[in-house]
Design brief:
The chain is mainly alpha-helical. The protein has a single domain, classed as Ferritin (Up-down Bundle). The mean pLDDT is 95. The structure holds MU-OXO-diiron.
Length: 174
């Protein structure tokens, strides 16, 4: 049986994934406003993905006969200094999520909850992929430069990365 401590921690993770979904939604809107369609598409897909991450825990809790709680979501920022700073924030947030997943794995081990530990392996892998993806994007931005004349090229690159990620998802690889 899953412990109260584990349920509480998983419900907190639901909040973190839910916040990521809204943060990326807000970023999508900002990108649209700035005329960066490729980046907007990317952030919309990421936002959907985070919602899926949230729901996966939600359903898991129900499956183990625990109470999944719909989270209170803090309003995310609406304005971003630049596309580079926006992606830096995404990367930082993903690192925070990874640290939180690692804590959950540690807790599941301490609680002898190997069912939850097994369930969390999917997130461990997912975080490795997400961090790698954000690093790739930041490297590209550094390479292209993020002055006004570079934005068009950045947007095109992100559009390509997004198409690839969507393709991988459709193939069940993401
Ligand atoms: Fe669900 Fe990107 O962390």
């Amino acid at each position: 049986m899953i412990s109260k401590k584990m349920v509480k921690a998983l419900n907190e993770q639901i909040g973190l994934e839910g916040y990521a979904s809204y943060l990326y939604l807000s970023m999508a809107s900002w990108c649209d406003k700035e005329g960066m369609e490729g980046c907007a598409q990317f952030m919309h897909r990421q936002s959907e993905e985070e919602r899926m991450h949230m729901l996966k825990i939600f359903h898991y809790l129900s499956e183990v006969d625990a109470h999944a709680l719909a989270p209170a979501i803090k309003q995310p920022p609406h304005e971003f200094e630049s596309v580079r700073s926006m992606f830096e924030q995404v990367y930082k947030h993903e690192q925070k999520v990874t640290a939180s997943i690692n804590k959950l794995v540690k807790l599941s081990y301490e609680e002898n909850d190997f069912t939850t530990m097994e369930f969390l392996q999917w997130y461990v892998e997912e975080q490795r992929e997400e961090e790698a993806l954000m690093r790739t994007i930041l490297d590209k931005i550094k390479l292209i430069g993020d002055g006004p004349s570079s934005l068009y090229y950045i947007d095109q690159e992100i559009e390509k990365i997004n198409a690839k990620a969507a393709e991988a998802e459709a193939g069940g690889e993401a």
